[in-house]
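Bug #77: duplicate submission created two jobs. Keeping one. Sequence:
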Amino acid sequence: MGGQYRITGDKYPRMRRPRRRGRLVVLTVASVAVLGVGGWGTIQLIEVFTGGGDSASAVGTKAACADRASRTVAPKVLPRPGTITVNVLNATTRGGLAQKTADELKKRGFKVGEVANATKQYDKKVKGTGVLLGPAAALDTSLPVLGAQLAGAERRTDPARKGTEVDLIIGDKFQALTGKADADRALAALADPEPTPASKKNC
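Kept job's structure:
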């Protein structure tokens, strides 16, 4: 065969590019596609488990926080002084304290029951301002209301005690009941406590 090119030897020159390069391109494109699909799936799973910053998730979180805050600041339902009967008992050696204290409690709206000396269990054994004693149910009801009238008094409950009456046992350090204005402020704080700040991590 004439012309510019001449074939010599027993091998013919290849007239097209090898197929290997085309296969590499196809494999590369397929790999990129698989990685893309896998990455997209991973992102979707992360969003499912973390909320993904969705506006709906944010709204749900805010609603939960608002609900928690409303429960935190809900006012307590405490008994009124007029529904609480107080026995005033004197555990000191000073005479007349029980009657004087009972008269003041009556002026503040409490019902007064027994006015007497303390029983042997407490007589001359109360070193502080006083002890407030009642049944177990009074711990979060009557005793806090009575406690507002005598700051610093120890609160105790007797599981075996029946009824709703509570005792105010006057101790050695007793001078007088808490001032009425201060007692009223303490009662108001009990009925409407300050809200607890929400945790930044959760809200």
